[in-house]
Structure formats: structure tokens, C-alpha cells
Amino acid sequence: MISAAAKSLKGGHLVAFPTETVYGLGADATNGEAITKIYKAKGRPANHPLIVHIASMESMDMWARDIAGYAIKLARDFWPGPMTLVLKRTELAKDFITGGQGTVGIRVPAQPIAMSLLKEFQSLGGKGIAAPSANRFGAVSPTTANAVAQELLPYLDINNDLILDGGPCLVGVESTIIDCTKDLPHILRLGAITKEIIEQSTGLQVIDAVANTEIRVSGSLESHYSPKAQVVLDQVPTSGDGYIALVDNQTPPGVIRLASPNSIEQYARDLYAALREADARALPKVVVKQPQGDGLAEAIRDRLKRAAN
Ligand code: TXA
Ligand code: MG
Do 172 and 272 touch, CB atoms closer than 8 A? Predict the structure, then answer.
């Protein structure tokens, strides 16, 4: 299956695959026509850059140049893992990957199927797999193969494109994106690799630039990660509402409990599936009680704010 998928990618087709964060919709990052298929399947504007997934940090130099020391440190400490580094691009990173920007986003995912696929693709001469989250533009990222099929099957070429099933994603929210082109690391998207973790690793002050609109990050659009159901934050749910909250919150009568995570990590893992479940049940409204605290809880609140917009 993996070798068929790698061949399919090499042939210019799309392969959706699991990562530890969310499922990605992959294509050969050097093949402009294949990348066009990603934009079409997602219904995504073509000026939004894509993350290039590579098998190991040894391939970084192919895609990026003038890499800051702290970026190397981060790569050593957290790859494979839920972290994307934005770096100055080389010639290999064409405008169709970078959205015409001078930078490229790179990530080594920590998921066995993703890793096998990347290695197999590399053995066929592949240089990297571009993969945005495998959802339609603006929708909730998929965390199961089933969710990918629901999102994208009508937009895939059923004779050539593939969806690999690796079960539910272990992290559940998208990778932390760190702009490493400046003197200090700038966080562009919050995720499981938190500000504190980055500061500890680099010994540098980390700038929270999530609201920065200068660089195009579609995940930082104000409305994103949205189900069809109306998402309302921190209200008391009433009969007929969906409800997502940590397990110690009770479910009022008539309220449809969609998730009861028992930790922040579990909350991140369950959130997107629960939002999908709201739509599967055609609920008009889902009330979400936000988790408190920093780190991953902050990343969850960031997604919820946009889902509620
Ligand atoms: O966890 C993840 O990162 C998942 C899995 C599949 O790896 N991928 C993902 O891709 O979330 P996507 O395309 O849905 O979100 C990636 C974000 C986009 O908002 C994009 O604009 C931003 O990364 N991005 C990519 N390259 C960039 C660059 N050179 N500069 C700034 N932002 C960039
Ligand atoms: Mg996305």
C-alpha cells in the first residue's frame, strides 16, 4: 500500500495520509500540476503557501537556505514532530509551494505511515511531499481517514488518488508554525510545541505573532476550522445543543454531549471529531466550554475562536 502510494505521488497524483497532528492531502512538492490538484480538491486560494513534508532534517538544505542556528536546534529537538519551520527558500521551493513568498514551511511528521511514505517517496527520487490539511478550505481539519473521505472524496480522482488510513491522529490540532527568518523565533500558529517549549530549547525570547497578517497563513484567517453548526463559546448549553467540555462538566438535560475529554491532550485529540459529529447529527448549535491554561490549551482556544467566528 505504501509503495503504491509513493508511486502514485511520483506519478503526479494525490495521496491523503495520516500525520500525528491531522490528515494531510499530499502531492509531489516539485510538481506544479500535482500541486494544482491540491488547490482544486481543497477549493483553496492559490496564494496560500503549503507545508513541505520531508523524511528527515538532512533534506532541509534542499528546500531552505541561511538557516538560523536556533532553527537547527528546534529541528534537532522536535523533529519528527508537530512543528513546522518557516525558512528562507531555495530554488527548489517554487512559487506554487510558497504562494510567491521568499520563505518555505517545512516539517518532519512523527507518524509511522507518514514516515514510511516519505522514505519510500524519497527512494523513488522524491524530494518532499506538500500537504495541507485534508479538508475543504475553511472547514474542520480531518483527524480520521473517514473524515478525509467525507471531506474530499467527491473532489478526488478515484482511479488514481489514494487515502491512507492510520487511525485517529494522536495530537489532533495542526502543527505549531514558527517563522525562523528573523533574529528571534516568531510563532505564526499555536500548536503542541508551545512557546515555553520553544523558549527552553532555544534559550531565546519567542514572539507571539499569531495575529500578524503580513505573512499569509490561512490557518490564521479569522474564520477557519468551522463546522456547519454554529459554535458558541462558554455559554450554558440548553436542550438540543451539542456540548463539548472537559469530563468534570455535567451535561444538562436534553443536551447532546459530543465529547468529554479528561485532559487537555485528550481535548485536542477529540475536538475536531466532535465538531464533525455535530454536523453529522445536523445540530444547529454546539456549545464549547474552553479549556483553561497555557500551552496546548491556548492552541485549542485559538482554533475555537476561529471556529466560532
Ligand atoms: O499539522 C500540520 O501542519 C498539517 C499536517 C498535514 O502536516 N498541515 C497543515 O497544513 O495544517 P495547512 O496547509 O492546512 O496549514 C498550513 C499553514 C497554512 O496556513 C499556510 O498558510 C502556512 O501553514 N504556511 C505554509 N508555508 C508558509 C510560509 N512559507 N510562510 C507562512 N506560512 C506558511
Ligand atoms: Mg488547514
Answer: yes
